[in-house]
Design brief:
mainly alpha
């Protein structure tokens, strides 16, 4: 009966299980973002072969918006320049984005270090842009999104540093 020492674990050590709740909360959040973007992408595909301007005008009417106002007009102008190939391209981008979010969510749920790094990098990429957008035109929504993303990235950096520190302390001197 030979006892073999287990190889390096891809999961966090038992001491880090306190971070499981936080990682799983972030995993649910990332999966929800992926699902939302997937639904939007599928919605875009449903507009293929339709006259986009009439669909846009119907959306504006359903929400009781005035076509003469600035923002509804921007929406209508933007939707008139969308053709089938652009809709398919946007739907493909939505599929790729949601796939990345689902993979990230799976890894975070399973407490995998690679998923934490993926979340740190993919969340950190947006922070400068979100900060710029907030500075250019501050809104409550932009401030909330930036705060949530800073919180998520900061928490994941904390968890990674804690894990790296715990691993270094467990090595024999």
């Amino acid at each position: 009966m030979g006892f073999t020492r287990p190889g390096p674990s891809r999961r966090h050590p038992a001491a880090a299980r306190g971070s499981a709740g936080g990682l799983r909360t972030i995993a649910i959040f990332e999966a929800a973002k992926g699902a939302l973007v997937l639904v939007v992408g599928l919605g875009l595909l449903s507009f293929v072969h339709y006259y986009a301007q009439s669909v846009g005008e119907e959306i504006v009417r359903r929400f009781h918006l005035n076509l003469a106002h600035h923002y509804p007009r921007i929406f209508i102008d933007a939707i008139t320049h969308v053709d089938d190939s652009r809709l398919r391209l946007l739907a493909l981008a939505a599929l790729l984005y949601s796939t990345l979010r689902f993979i990230e969510a799976y890894g975070l749920w399973r407490m995998r270090a690679w998923a934490e790094w993926l979340a740190i990098i993919s969340g950190g990429i947006y922070l400068p842009l979100e900060l710029y957008e907030l500075i250019e035109h501050a809104t409550v929504v932009k401030a909330v999104v930036l705060t949530i993303n800073i919180g998520i990235v900061g928490y994941l950096i904390y968890v990674r540093r804690h894990q790296l520190g715990h691993r270094d302390k467990s090595k024999p001197a």
